[in-house]
Amino acid sequence: MSEELSSKFISYYSSFSNKDYSLVSFERIFGGASRETYKIEVKGDTVERLILRVTQDSSLIETEQETEYLAYSAFQNSAVPVPDLLDMSEDKNILGAPFMLMKELKGEAASPFTPGVYSPNEKKLGYQFWSILGEIAKKDINKDIFETLAEELSSPSWKNELDKWVKVIHEDSISIEPILEAGIRTLYRNPPKEPERLSIVHGDYRSGNFLFLNDQITGILDWEMAHIGNPLEDLGWALSPIWSWQDRKRPGYLIQKEEALKVWESSSNIKVDPVELKWWELFAAVKGMAIWISAGNEFKSGKNIDPINLFSAWIPGDIHLEVILDILEDNNEA
Amino acid sequence: MKPDINEALLNAAQEIIGRFSPLIEDEYERSRLGSWGALILISAMKFNDAGSALYKENEDIVLWLRDYTNLDSEELTNLDIKAYQDVSTVDKINQELRELLNREFMALEDSGDKVGIRSGLVLMRTMHQRRKVSDLIGLLQVPED
């Protein structure tokens, strides 16, 4: 498949750039929940490094490519580092599926499940990670982009998001999970306040979804779940213990939670209400369960037997269930 | 005495991870095969206990339902199977019991029965501890998300 795609790509890219290019390398990157991602090197006058994201027939999370494109567009040349966008096409005739093309950023992404992966730079990276998230929360988004991303938004925004993920859970669940159902009921019974200001929400801001080079964050990736909502949603997701399961006091295996909150508050100019944040932390675990259940369903139905789907259903699915149980126990302590 | 199924799976996982995966040059295919190796390793470690754990879970749920709910005892007797059953039957009963547990736990929440809620959470903790495979995360070279 890759050979056919690479030859289609080089002919498309030469025509797109109006220059002759030859292919140096074309490699698929493992992982990626919603798109097939390729790392490409082409040679024209100089060597160019590109990233191609191709929509999959069956993906872990069903998302619109346009969402990701708009989110990247919103943060071009801002305090939030994102790749330079080159092209996006919904035309399946060019490469066989809709795609998005961008310049490759320097740096590497780490597995979110590997302790010590940012050592010895976890402190510097941690300050940047939480500060950039604050920048996302306070960013004034271009009106057209805001309105497009807010198209399906209904009030209150928390319910919009919760309803969406609960629907996924009830459509894709293989069996009933009493812990998860109890978590969902807790969220509906104790809703959070609407934020003073709605923000763009990354939707999957966490360790593993940024590029870093030594002690510098060079790019924030994977914006396909971006939407308009409560900025505490991203904070709750990024703080989730799943991203530092073997060292839960240092979210993302970066800096301590208390320190992370101070950095975020200072960068976003938003004071965190602990009760509100707790709701969003429980929401994060429920949303995570929706994603892992969906992955398990893809695997079990045979639509996509990529081992990442089985892995997601087994390991992260277990962890987020345990996070929900921890919160429920905490709420019901004598 | 033949080697056990879990031993076969364990060896297959080790061969995949240590012997075959490194031979593959394509990074994507190598990672994908390595992930299969890791998942087979988890399967091997959980294989022997899977059936008995399901039996035990069913017993625990029935006990809890008897102690903390007003369910019809005949209905529970039908679900409290002591005789040998194949795993798919035990699993089917398990689905029914989980439905009942969820429904009855919700009723306790509605009535504000703190004691019942706490005992339900203790049961759910036991069920989760028995089922989970995430405690093996440290043993694995997990695939990148």
Describe the SSE topology.
The complex is a heterodimer of chains A (334) and B (145).
Chain A: H1 2-17, E1 22-29, E2 35-43, E3 47-55, H2 65-74, E4 85-89, H3 92-95, E5 99-103, H4 122-138, H5 143-149, H6 157-172, H7 178-189, E6 199-201, E7 210-213, E8 216-220, E9 227-229, H8 231-239, H9 257-268, H10 274-301, H11 307-331
Antiparallel strand pairs in A: 1-2, 2-3, 3-5, 4-5, 6-9, 7-8
Helix pairs in contact in A: 4-9, 6-10, 7-10, 7-11, 8-10, 10-11
Chain B: H1 5-20, H2 27-47, H3 50-68, H4 73-79, H5 87-111, H6 114-131
Helix pairs in contact in B: 1-2, 3-5, 3-6, 5-6
Explain how this protein is built.
- Chain A is about 45% helix and about 15% strand.
- Chain A has about 325 residues and is α+β, with helices and mostly antiparallel strands.
- Chain A has 2 domains: about 1-105, Phosphorylase Kinase, domain 1; about 120-334, Aminoglycoside phosphotransferase (APH), C-terminal lobe (Aminoglycoside 3'-phosphotransferase, Chain: A, domain 2, Alpha-Beta Complex).
- In chain A, the strands form 3 sheets. In chain A, strands 1-2-3-5-4 form a 5-stranded antiparallel β-sheet, with helices on both faces. A two-stranded antiparallel sheet of chain A has the order 6-9. A two-stranded antiparallel ribbon of chain A has the order 7-8.
- In chain A, a hairpin with a 3-residue loop joins strand 2 and strand 3 (about 45-55).
- The longest helix of chain A has 28 residues, at about 275-300.
- The N and C termini of chain A lie far apart (about 60 Å).
- In chain A, about 45% of the residues are buried.
- By secondary structure, chain B is mainly alpha-helical.
- The radius of gyration of chain B is 20 Å and the shape is elongated.
- Chain B has helices at about 5-20, 25-45, 50-70, 75-80, 85-110, 115-130.
- Chains A and B meet through strand 1, helix 7 and helix 11 of A and helix 2, helix 5 and helix 6 of B.
